[in-house]
Amino acid sequence: MAELLDTLLTPSSLEMHYRFRASPERLFQAWTQPELLRQWFRVHPDYSTPIADVDLRVGGQFRLGMRSPEGEDVIAFGEYREIEAPNRLAFTWKWESAPPEMAPTLVSLEFREQEAGTEIVLLHEHLISEEQRDNHLDGWIGCLTSLSVLDNPK
């Protein structure tokens, strides 16, 4: 089971530390392979993830879509900025529903091997308000909790 270790907040960023039993390799794959993303990437257990398009290369694009129980799709997209398997992943982040003039934010993930698994450090930067930060905090908590379905030592 995923365990939240720490959360650090500034007005324009959030940093979360989670511990998992799975290896860095397994967790990196969970973030980068469409078939695995569809299994866990959701803000709430009642949501599904019908869209998981990944072009895993620096400059490549991704598109992730979650569907609510009412059938509403919320879709995020971005561009990969750093890929250092299995230790680091960074990408831009923007909602398709956001105004076109809104700049994308930046998400960085570190996969730190530990004695009994992996610590994931998620840093989400360049948020424009505390409200946006808090909304993303809730969403990331939901997603990282959902990642527990793939949290096995293999």
How would you describe this structure to a colleague?
This protein is an alpha+beta fold. It has one domain: START domain (Alpha-D-Glucose-1,6-Bisphosphate, Chain A, domain 4), CATH 3.30.530.20. Helices cover 21% and strands 45% of the residues. It has 3 helices and 8 strands; from the N terminus they run ββααββββββα. It has helices at 24-32, 34-40, 130-146, and strands at residues 3-10, 13-20, 48-54, 61-67, 73-84, 88-95, 105-114, 117-125. Strands 1-2-8-7-6-5-4-3 form an 8-stranded antiparallel beta sheet. The chain is globular, with a radius of gyration of 15 Å.
Descriptive keywords:
3 helices; 8 strands; alpha+beta; Alpha-D-Glucose-1,6-Bisphosphate, Chain A, domain 4; 154 residues; 8-stranded antiparallel beta sheet
Low-confidence stretches: none
Q: Mean pLDDT, as a whole number?
A: 96
Give me the CATH superfamily.
START domain
Q: How many domains comprise the coordinates?
A: 1
**CATH fold call:** Alpha-D-Glucose-1,6-Bisphosphate, Chain A, domain 4
- Tally of helical runs: 3
Give the CA-CA distance, first to last residue.
Answer: 14 Å
In short:
By secondary structure, the chain is α+β, with helices and mostly antiparallel strands. It has 3 helices and 8 strands; from the N terminus they run ββααββββββα.
Write the layout of secondary structure elements.
Layout: E1 3-10, E2 13-20, H1 24-32, H2 34-40, E3 48-54, E4 61-67, E5 73-84, E6 88-95, E7 105-114, E8 117-125, H3 130-146
Antiparallel strand pairs: 1-2, 2-8, 3-4, 4-5, 5-6, 6-7, 7-8
